[in-house]
From TrEMBL:
Transmembrane segments: none annotated. Residues 11-146 form the YqaJ viral recombinase domain. This is YqaJ viral recombinase domain-containing protein. InterPro entries: PDDEXK-like_dom_sf, Restrct_endonuc-II-like, YqaJ_viral_recombinase.
């Protein structure tokens, strides 16, 4: 078993790296992953809290395994992780599967994820698997060669567990394989990804330049204007948003959900450190604006010819 995080594991393309390679990861950017796999920077060390999350996840796999068995009569499931690689793929690869479902000659990928609730997991209420996890599981199916419908068990701290299904899609898998090949070639050629606006990339650029040598750099006036202008705007915006959220909390009192008609605007939920937190329903913005636009926009729309 090649341990995740080891030097050998870091050099291989694994399913967990595929969302970053595709540019759809919520946690790690292309820029960060490229520099890690190229050996230019070390992956961030695992904190004690993060390790505790991993330990909790492994413990949840035991319960998720039993839950999956109840929901899939006739199928057997492995006692733990299964690791494999696929020499037929044109890039170095390695897949570590949480659990392997089997029935006769059939094999299935069974992945387990933990989250505080389905919203934190990334389910916006549609019941659809977040695309980064979907890409990861499709990559697992690609490397293992197991094309039976794969399952992801989300073990939430609040609410019941949920099983998401991923169908094999040869066309999408082909695109993933091609992107992985191009990614591997980019590391060999030294063609690093472009900068982006993620926290992951910001922290990576800081890690690339840890020293201060006392020199001075001339910035382009456009970049200088933009960074100061947007920073000033951000501070003002943060104060405005905080004031508006305070008004929403005040209007809600002890209520759980705030709505406009049948459109959810926000909800109050338990906070991990105690108390409650306000979560805004950003996904409903377009619906709210379509049915309740700003008055000045509504009057402009009404004046437009049919």
């Amino acid at each position: 078993m090649i341990e995740p995080g080891s030097a050998e594991w870091l050099k291989a393309i694994t399913p967990s790296k595929v969302p970053s390679i595709l540019g759809i990861s919520r946690w790690k950017s292309q820029y960060t992953l490229w520099h890690e796999m190229a050996g230019i920077i070390e992956p961030a060390p695992i904190s004690e809290a993060r390790q505790d999350d991993f330990d909790y996840g492994h413990a949840c796999e035991l319960a998720a395994r039993e839950y999956w068995k109840f929901k899939n009569p006739g199928w057997r499931i492995s006692q733990g992780e299964v690791q494999c690689s696929n020499d037929d793929l044109p890039f170095a690869n390695l897949a570590t599967i949480d659990l392997r479902g089997s029935r006769g000659s059939l094999r299935r990928v069974v992945e387990v994820k933990t989250a505080r609730d389905l919203s934190e997991f990334g389910d916006d209420g549609s019941g659809e698997l977040p695309r980064d996890y979907a890409a990861q599981i499709l990559a697992q199916m690609l490397i293992t060669g197991w094309h039976e419908t794969a399952d992801l068990v989300c073990w939430a701290q609040y609410g019941k567990p949920r099983i998401y299904h991923v169908q094999w899609d040869a066309q999408v898998a082909g695109v993933i394989a091609e992107r992985c090949l191009q990614w591997e070639r980019s590391i060999v050629s030294g063609s690093r990804p472009a900068l982006d606006n993620t926290i992951s990339t910001y922290e990576t650029v800081k890690a690339l330049h840890p020293d201060i040598d006392g020199s001075t750099v001339e910035l382009a006036p456009e970049l200088a204007r933009q960074v100061l202008d947007w920073s000033k705007e951000l501070k003002a915006t943060e104060k405005t948003v905080l004031g508006l959220k305070t008004q929403v909390l005040d209007a809600m009192g002890n209520a759980q959900t705030a709505v406009v008609g049948d459109i959810k605007v926000a909800d109050r939920r338990p906070h991990g450190r105690g108390g409650v937190a306000l979560a805004l329903a950003h996904k409903n913005y377009d619906q709210l604006m379509a049915t309740h636009p700003y008055p000045e926009l509504a009057s402009t729309t009404e004046r437009q010819p049919a």
